[in-house]
DNA sequence: TTAGGGTTAG
């Protein structure tokens, strides 16, 4: 049999796929004598496990190196241990060494090494392990191997075909088999297929577990379907899983992602058991719909004695960014530093965004420059900050620096750099990046990218080019693209194109008051009083009035929000003074009010 | 000695 295995797994099979890291130079301070591990039920394997549990990988390797007799259990322990510490390259190395030492793997080994392949997303290695499983007769006889195989194929393949085939061949499926298949579909973005499998599982009275309910709820959340989510929630209640905290946390998350705020709050109040994840889920959920509420929940979390973690801080810092409350953000930054979380990558990224959105771009840059390590999100956040502050040149420089540092750009970073170019009038630079994206990085521009380029051309007055781009783009333009063109036509006084864009906007959003006003002004300017009157008549019938533009000022620990003619201005002395200063400053720098969109009395 | 699930950033 071993000859067959060796033939199947020749050394050349391993060489190019995964780098082999052989550790053979460890010093062993704890043990002076080599260990004899003829049977592996005793001390050495227990010690191996405890070392890996503690994360003392080197000690585990030292101990293993000292063992004179290593059997399949010992080798498998090492593979499993390396997997548990996320040292998957080392786990694979152990596996190859094991085969070279002539040790025959068993079902435990195969399922462990399949987990390694899954983590490394190494399909070729996984196929080798599959071949081995067939040769030694573990596929079809070990449910652990079958399930691990399915999981490996679901993770590493472009489609679910192989995973599905393994699943269909399993005669007695258990709860893990079902969950693995549902997870496979859901994690690759095919939540409906995952839910179909979940339904099939219920119909066939498959073994139920909290895992399968959690992933089914996740599938509903990923497609934003609270209708399906409520059905799964009902099934959770019917099958008695309401006392399972991970399941309830996932239901809470589903309601938040489906924007069912009242259902989320009700469930949260009804939950008798809560952990940090429960609070974090609610805080992150409200962070996208009600920033202020998100901060209030955070405050409650603290007062009820729960300790916030990096997930919590990332969400509340984002809430401060969206509220533009610098004072609050600064306080949080202080807490983050005091708790020693200031080197956390995700928190740092959210702080960069917060400082930029609160108007303090210098502190964003200071924080970014001081980060011990950065990722694509860090660079993108900084570029978006620069773009929003009108520093297009800095954003472009940062993009080039990022590429030099070896980070590969994605679509979002191109949105950031194109938007920065657009606001800074760097048209040719922006177009160069548009070409770079498609020609060099092979990234297909999506609707957002086209929107940026339309904006880039339009702001620079190249309205006809912008229109041609809209006409030739491979998507149906949405309302925002026509609004962008309309803004450009208005700024560069292109009435005929503006008329076309305005009519397109009204086709899609018939209640946009601003568009009616703008279009009627164009008619007035060309003396077309018939259409002007008709439009004004239509405007009176538009029920959905435009929301008044809202501004806010942060004074001490309070945020004052106000609209035109609001009583805030006259009732708040300090606020009034700030506004007076602002008006003087605006006039000093030459601001002339644009009254084009003010309706005639 | 083995397999599957829940919360973060642009």
TrEMBL record:
PROSITE patterns: PPR. It comes from the Eukaryota. PPR repeats lie at residues 71-105, 244-278, 375-409. InterPro entries: E_motif (IPR046848), PPR_At4g14850-like_plant (IPR046960), PPR_rpt (IPR002885), TPR-like_helical_dom_sf (IPR011990). One of its GO terms (molecular function) is RNA binding. Transmembrane segments: none annotated. One of its GO terms (biological process) is RNA modification. Pfam families: E_motif, PPR, PPR_2. Keywords: Repeat. Signal peptide: none annotated. The keyword Repeat applies. PANTHER family: PENTACOTRIPEPTIDE-REPEAT REGION OF PRORP DOMAIN-CONTAINING PROTEIN (PTHR47926:SF448), PENTATRICOPEPTIDE REPEAT-CONTAINING PROTEIN (PTHR47926). This is Pentatricopeptide repeat-containing protein. The lineage of its organism: Eukaryota, Viridiplantae, Streptophyta, Embryophyta, Tracheophyta.
């Amino acid at each position: 049999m071993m000859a067959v295995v060796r033939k199947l797994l020749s050394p050349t099979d391993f060489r190019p796929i995964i780098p082999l890291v052989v550790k053979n130079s460890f010093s062993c301070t704890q043990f002076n004598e080599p260990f004899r591990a003829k049977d592996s039920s005793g001390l050495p394997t227990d010690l191996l496990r405890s070392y890996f549990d503690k994360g003392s990988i080197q000690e585990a390797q030292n101990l293993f190196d000292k063992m004179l007799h290593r059997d399949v259990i010992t080798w498998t322990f090492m593979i499993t241990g390396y997997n548990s510490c996320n040292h998957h390259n080392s786990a694979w190395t152990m596996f190859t060494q094991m085969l070279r030492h002539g040790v025959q793997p068993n079902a435990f080994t195969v399922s462990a090494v399949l987990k390694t392949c899954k983590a490394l997303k190494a399909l070729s290695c996984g196929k080798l392990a599959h071949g081995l499983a067939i040769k030694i007769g573990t596929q079809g006889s070990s449910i652990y191997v079958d399930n691990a195989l399915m999981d490996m194929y679901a993770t590493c393949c472009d489609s679910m075909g192989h995973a599905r085939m393994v699943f269909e061949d399993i005669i007695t499926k258990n709860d893990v088999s079902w969950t693995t298949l549902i997870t496979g579909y859901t994690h690759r973005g095919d939540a409906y297929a995952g839910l179909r499998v979940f339904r099939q599982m219920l119909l066939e009275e498959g073994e139920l577990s909290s895992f399968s309910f959690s992933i089914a709820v996740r599938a509903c959340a990923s497609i934003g379907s609270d209708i399906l989510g409520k059905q799964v929630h009902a099934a959770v209640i019917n099958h008695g899983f309401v006392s399972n905290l991970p399941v309830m946390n996932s239901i809470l998350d589903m309601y938040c992602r489906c924007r069912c705020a009242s259902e989320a709050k009700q469930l949260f109040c009804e939950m008798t058991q809560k952990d940090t994840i429960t609070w974090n889920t609610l805080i992150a959920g409200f962070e996208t719909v009600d920033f202020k509420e998100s901060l209030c929940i955070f405050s409650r979390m603290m007062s009820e004695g729960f300790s916030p973690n990096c997930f919590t801080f990332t969400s509340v810092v984002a809430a401060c960014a969206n509220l533009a409350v610098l004072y609050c953000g600064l306080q949080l930054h202080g807490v983050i530093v005091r708790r020693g979380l200031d080197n956390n990558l995700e928190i740092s990224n959210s702080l960069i965004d917060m400082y930029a959105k609160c108007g303090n771009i210098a502190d964003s840059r200071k924080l970014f420059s001081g980060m011990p390590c950065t990722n694509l999100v860090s660079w993108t956040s900084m570029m978006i900050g620069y773009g929003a502050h009108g520093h297009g040149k800095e954003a472009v420089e940062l993009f080039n620096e990022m590429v030099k540092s070896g980070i590969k750009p994605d679509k979002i970073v191109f949105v950031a750099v194109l938007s920065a170019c657009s606001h800074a009038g760097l048209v040719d630079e922006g177009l160069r990046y548009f070409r770079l994206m498609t020609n060099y990085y092979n990234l297909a521009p999506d609707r957002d990218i086209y929107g940026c380029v339309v904006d880039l051309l339009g702001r620079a007055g190249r309205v006809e080019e912008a229109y041609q781009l809209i006409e030739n783009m491979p998507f149906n333009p949405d309302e925002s693209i026509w609004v962008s063109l309309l803004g450009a036509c208005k700024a560069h006084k292109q009435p005929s194109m503006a008329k076309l864009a305005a009519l397109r906007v009204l086709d899609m959003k018939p209640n946009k008051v601003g568009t009616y006003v703008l279009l009627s002004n164009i008619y007035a300017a060309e003396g077309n009083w018939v259409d002007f009157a008709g439009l004004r008549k239509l405007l009176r019938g538009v029920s959905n009035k435009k929301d008044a533009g809202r501004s806010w000022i942060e004074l001490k620990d309070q945020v004052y929000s106000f609209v035109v003619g609001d009583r805030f201005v006259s009732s708040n002395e300090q606020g009034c003074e700030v506004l007076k200063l602002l008006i003087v400053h605006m006039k000093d720098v030459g601001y002339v009010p644009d009254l084009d969109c003010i309706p005639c009395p």
